Amino acid sequence: MQRGRRQRLPTDVVLGPYAYGPVGTTDEPGTVLLTVGGSARRPGVVETSTGVPLLDVLEMCEAEIGPGVLLGGFHGKWITADAAARAVVSRESLAEVGGTLGAGIILPLGPGRGRQRA
């Protein structure tokens, strides 16, 4: 995984087409760009191979997970912290836990956040 910066070249350019193909999962080869925000102490754009545990991405961005994580952006879906712990970065895995990759937006809620009950 690498944190995105303008001066860095995309992984596919650095590796070339023959080395880039085997990166990621068999069903979803390659990498994805994720924008991590929310409770992340180090928010930013992350390029990662598909198949990487979602928790690895969140830990790299120093994100605390409270009651849930919004995946996919404005039209995305919420998943629980337990679901985030089981998920890997891929469309199939995120769908299996009730989420979506969508636009690649990942917004974890920190502890103590979420709906307040009266």
Question: What's the layout of helices and strands?
Answer:
Layout: E1 2-3, H1 11-15, H2 17-20, E2 31-36, E3 44-49, H3 54-60, E4 68-71, E5 77-80, H4 81-86, H5 91-96, E6 105-108
Parallel strand pairs: 2-6
Antiparallel strand pairs: 1-3, 2-3, 4-5, 4-6
Q: Care to describe what's here?
A:
With 118 residues, this protein is of the alpha+beta class. The protein contains five helices and six strands, in the order βααββαββααβ. A six-stranded mixed β-sheet has the order 1-3-2-6-4-5. The mean pLDDT is 86. 24% of the residues lie in helices and 22% in strands. The chain is globular and about 45 Å long.
How would you concisely characterize the structure shown here?
With about 120 residues, the protein is of the alpha+beta class. It contains 5 helices and 6 strands.
Distance between the termini: 42 Å
How do the SSEs run, as a string of H and E?
A: EHHEEHEEHHE
Helix content: 10-25%
From the alpha carbons, calculate the radius of gyration and give it in angstroms.
Answer: 14 Å
